Amino acid sequence: MRDLRDFRAGKPAFYPDQSVYAEYACARFDLTFRDLDGGTGLLFSVTSKEKSVQFGAGRCSWYPQNNSTAATLASDKYFANKILEDAGIATLGGEYFFLSERHRAHRPEGHERQDAVACFRKLNSAAFAKPLTGSRGDFAQIVEGDAALERYLTDVSQHYDSVLIQPIVAGREYRIFMLDDEIVYCARRLPPFLPGDGVRTIRALLVAHNTDLQTRGLSPIAVTVTAHLLDTVLPSATLWEIPGRTNFSAGGRMELESPGPQAAAMARGAVRALGLRLAAVDIFTEIGGDPNVLRIIEVNSNPSIRFLEEMDRGDLIQKIWHHTFSAVGLLDV
Question: Averaged over 208-235, what is the pLDDT?
Answer without folding.
Answer: 73
